[in-house]
Structure formats: structure tokens, C-alpha cells
Design brief:
Elements: E1 20-26, H1 34-37, E2 39-44, E3 52-61, H2 64-71, H3 77-80, E4 91-92, E5 97-104, E6 116-119, E7 122-123, H4 129-132, E8 144-145, E9 158-162, E10 166-168, H5 175-179, H6 182-193, E11 205-208, H7 214-225, E12 229-234, H8 237-245, E13 250-253, H9 269-289, E14 297-300, H10 307-313, E15 319-322, H11 335-340, E16 344-347, H12 353-364, E17 372-377, H13 381-389, E18 397-401
Parallel strand pairs: 11-12, 11-14, 12-13, 14-15, 15-16, 17-18
Antiparallel strand pairs: 1-2, 1-4, 3-5, 3-9, 3-18, 5-6, 6-10, 7-8
Bound molecules: NADP nicotinamide-adenine-dinucleotide phosphate (NAP).
């Protein structure tokens, strides 16, 4: 007889959906550091709409969204869920997963029960006029990040997704290898290929901040695959060597510089020190390349600490493309460098179906390595997000096992 609830690591027969499930949940009354805010609870398995799919999660990918969601900063993620007719008293974290389709809505044609999939995190309303007009859903008013802006994230035994989010899982990858790279890789793909005419072309120099991190490690590979030359920025020699192993032309250790943050006023004596630092950093890029070529694209996400430098070092007519403000949001742009050198400061957020599918195809083809750094058991979900929030995770992507077997996992507490 069908059970109501299965243990972590135990799978029901394919297609048999239990009434309840384990999920890693945050609630508004315990927002705070992820180690305590993210907790395992047993809740009801969600009902599906006609264009939804229910995926049994085998492994979930760890990313920074979940740290922000746990902290309730910069927004209370549960508040926005009302817009999508979802619960508002809790939120299941997680925007990356690999798993098996267990049920589909009546109108779903792209996946079937039993399919092995990875899930991309882009959601939107199917009846959004912008989407129905055939425009980029990534720019739709109803666009949202599954498992961040919406409730039913990946750190649970089952996740409710829109069926178009499901993409075929690469056969050569384990569940945990497949779980980790979709969100960051597809985001990097849009940043590097989604903003014409600033798409990576052979020979282009691309400055990649956080080259050993989740976004950066995949961005380096995408740049190399397109024939570009990635210059990675890192905080240690070991991380720099890791970036070179991924295909970076070279790296700069940001610890060798101190001009970070919002620069002093341009007409103050202190500004000259900032300018000297920014110029030295630009020269370091040329030293890596062995020629005086500046980045046509700057791949940005630290934000406040680095934007003034990024804007300065981008080439004439180049683009600074940014998807986050990990070090702060109050970025300062000296617009002289923008207008005079005709640079472009471009925001970018997640991706659409085509961009996610294009990245996934590169993974399936083996053109992009998933750089899995470490794997944790489900019970350590809060702990691993705490490590991420503290900046203590080693390089590479990180996955948590949900339905996948845990044999051989080290105790990583
Ligand atoms: N909008 C979107 O669509 C989207 C999608 C994915 C991720 N994100 C966001 O992007 C950010 C990065 O994600 P991730 O997965 O790459 O995180 P990650 O794996 O933690 O890597 C971030 C990297 O940034 C570097 N860094 C940290 N502080 C810095 C500073 N002050 N100056 C320069 N570099 C600094 C670090 O490298 P070093 O210490 O070695 O320099 C670190 O490896 C997060 O805020 C995440 O939420 C946004």
C-alpha cells in the first residue's frame, strides 16, 4: 500500500505520489542566519495546475538565493508568493534541482512521468500579455525565480514546477553533478550571449569577477568555449590556478589592491589614490594578456566594491553586465567613463527557456564541466548555506542529496 511519507533517500515507485514530504523551509518568524533559519519540516505535497510538473528531487543545488531568502534580506520572500496564489506563511528554498518527473498536469506535453530532468529556475505566467506576444519571458512583468520569488523550491522531496522548466539531464552526470550548475550557468549564458551586440566573440577579453565561484567558474568556461579570453579575479593563488584549469587566460589576485568600494569625490585629493589603484588594476589585466587590450565585457556581480573599477577598466564601447550586488548595492558610477568612452552598463537577471536550454546542451555535450566542489546530505542544508553566507565554501558548485543515495558521503559537519 502507498505510504503517506517516505524517508529522505527513499523513493516511492515512479509515478506514485505520497500525501506528505520532507522540505527545507524558512518562515518569516525565524528569518536570520541560514544555519538556524532553514529547517526540515514535513508538509503536504503541492497540487499541480494543468501546465505544471511534479519532480521528485534527487539532488538540489546550493546557491546564494537561499542565503538571501533565509535572511529575509533584501526582501521577505513569502510576501511576494501571494501574487502567484501560493502560501505566504512559508517558503521552500532552492532554485536548482535534478530529479525524476512523478506527475504532470493535463496540458503538459514536453515531459512525461519517469523522465530524468534538471530544472531551470525561470517562471512566468503563461497568460502574461508580454509572453503571449512572443517576447523574451525574462523581461515579463510576471517573471520570477522558482524557489526564491516562488514557494516550492528544490530542497524538498518533491517540487512543483512549470513543465517548461524541465530540461533533459545529461546522462554522463551523477544526480549531484547535474543538480548544481543550471541556475548559475544559464545566468552566465544570458550575461555573455544575451545582450547583443555585446556577445562573446573569438578573441574578446572578458574580465570575470569571482572566477572560482559558482557564476565565475562557469562564465570562464563559456568564454573559452566562445573563443574569448577570460581574465579571472580571485582572492588567492589557489583559486587563480583553479580558474586557469577551467580555461582562463590568467588571473588577478584582488588582495594585491586596496582601492575597493565607493571612490572619494572626483575633485578631492584622495581621489588620486583611488585612480592610481584603478589604473594599476587595469594594467594587471594587460600584464595577464601580454598586450594592452581591455575587456570588451566585464562580468560583474560583487557590485559596490568593484563597479567603479569595472566601469573604468572596460574597453571603449565595452559592456559591464551585472547580475548581483554581493558586496553592496550602492554602486557609484563616474559617468565620465560611460559617456566619453561610450560604455554600456547592463543589468541581467536569470534567463529564458532558450538560454537555459543552450547552456544545458553545452553540459550534455561535455563542453562545460560542472565543477562540483562538494556534496552534503539533506540534513546539513542549513549548515551548508551558512558556510556559503560566511564565504567559507571551497571552490566549485555545491549540491545536497535529497532522493539520491548518500553512501560514501563524508561527514562534512
Ligand atoms: N540575478 C541573477 O540571475 C543571479 C543568478 C545567480 C547568482 N546571482 C548572485 O550572484 C552572486 C554570486 O553568485 P555565485 O554563485 O557566483 O556566488 P559564490 O560562489 O559565492 O561566488 C562569489 C564570488 O565573488 C567573489 N567576491 C566576493 N566578495 C567580493 C568582493 N568584495 N569583491 C570582489 N569579488 C568578491 C568571491 O571570489 P574571490 O573571493 O575569490 O574574489 C566569490 O568566489 C550572488 O549574490 C548570487 O545571489 C544572481
Amino acid at each position: 500500500m502507498a505510504k503517506d511519507l517516505y524517508e529522505i533517500g527513499e523513493l516511492p515507485p515512479i509515478g506514485e505520489v505520497p500525501a506528505k514530504m520532507h522540505a527545507q523551509v524558512v518562515r518569516p518568524d525565524r528569518f536570520g542566519e541560514p544555519g538556524a533559519a532553514i529547517q526540515d519540516e514535513v508538509i503536504d505535497v503541492p497540487e499541480l495546475g494543468p501546465r505544471d510538473a511534479l519532480v521528485a528531487v534527487m539532488a538540489a543545488g546550493v546557491n546564494f538565493n537561499n542565503v538571501w531568502a533565509a535572511r529575509g534580506i533584501p526582501v521577505d520572500v513569502t510576501k511576494g508568493q501571494a501574487r502567484w496564489d501560493e502560501p505566504t506563511d512559508f517558503h521552500i528554498v532552492g532554485s536548482d534541482a535534478s530529479g525524476i518527473v512523478y506527475a504532470v498536469g493535463a496540458e503538459v506535453t514536453n515531459v512525461a512521468v519517469g523522465d530524468r530532468v534538471v530544472v531551470h529556475a525561470g517562471q512566468w505566467n503563461h497568460d502574461d500579455p508580454w509572453v503571449m506576444a512572443g517576447k523574451d519571458p525574462g523581461l515579463a512583468a510576471s517573471f520570477r525565480v522558482w524557489g526564491y520569488d516562488s514557494c516550492w523550491g528544490s530542497f524538498a522531496q518533491f517540487t512543483k514546477v512549470q513543465a517548461h522548466q524541465c530540461l533533459p539531464k545529461a546522462d554522463h552526470l551523477t544526480w549531484e553533478e547535474a543538480a548544481a550548475p543550471t541556475l548559475t550557468g544559464s545566468t552566465a549564458y544570458r550575461m555573455l550571449h544575451g545582450w547583443p551586440p555585446h556577445t562573446v566573440e573569438p578573441g574578446d577579453v572578458v574580465l570575470v569577477w569571482g572566477g572560482s565561484g559558482g557564476l565565475g567558474s562557469l562564465a570562464i568556461q563559456l568564454v573559452a568555449h566562445a573563443g574569448g579570453r577570460a581574465v579571472a579575479v580571485v582572492s588567492s593563488q589557489e583559486k587563480g590556478e583553479f580558474c586557469k584549469s577551467l580555461g582562463a587566460a590568467g588571473y588577478i589576485n584582488r588582495k594585491d589592491f586596496s582601492h575597493w568600494g565607493v571612490p572619494p569625490a572626483w575633485d578631492s585629493p584622495e581621489w588620486k589614490d583611488w585612480f592610481a589603484g584603478a589604473k594599476a588594476f587595469g594594467k594587471a589585466i594587460w600584464d595577464v594578456l601580454g598586450e594592452k587590450t581591455s575587456p570588451r565585457i566585464v562580468f560583474e556581480h560583487p557590485g559596490q566594491e568593484t563597479i567603479p573599477t569595472s566601469v573604468f577598466v572596460a574597453d571603449r564601447g565595452g559592456m559591464i553586465v551585472i547580475c548581483a550586488g554581493t558586496s553592496g548595492y550602492d554602486t557609484m558610477v563616474d559617468v565620465r567613463y560611460l559617456w566619453f568612452m561610450q560604455k554600456r552598463y547592463q543589468g541581467s537577471h536569470l534567463f529564458n527557456d532558450e538560454q537555459a536550454a543552450a547552456f544545458n546542451q553545452l553540459v550534455i555535450d561535455g563542453a562545460v564541466q560542472t565543477t562540483l566542489g562538494s556534496v552534503y546530505p539533506y540534513e546539513q542544508t542549513g549548515h551548508v548555506h551558512q558556510l556559503m553566507g560566511d564565504g567559507s565554501l571551497p571552490e566549485g558548485n555545491v549540491a545536497v542529496l535529497v532522493g539520491a543515495p548518500t553512501e560514501g558521503l563524508k561527514d562534512t559537519t
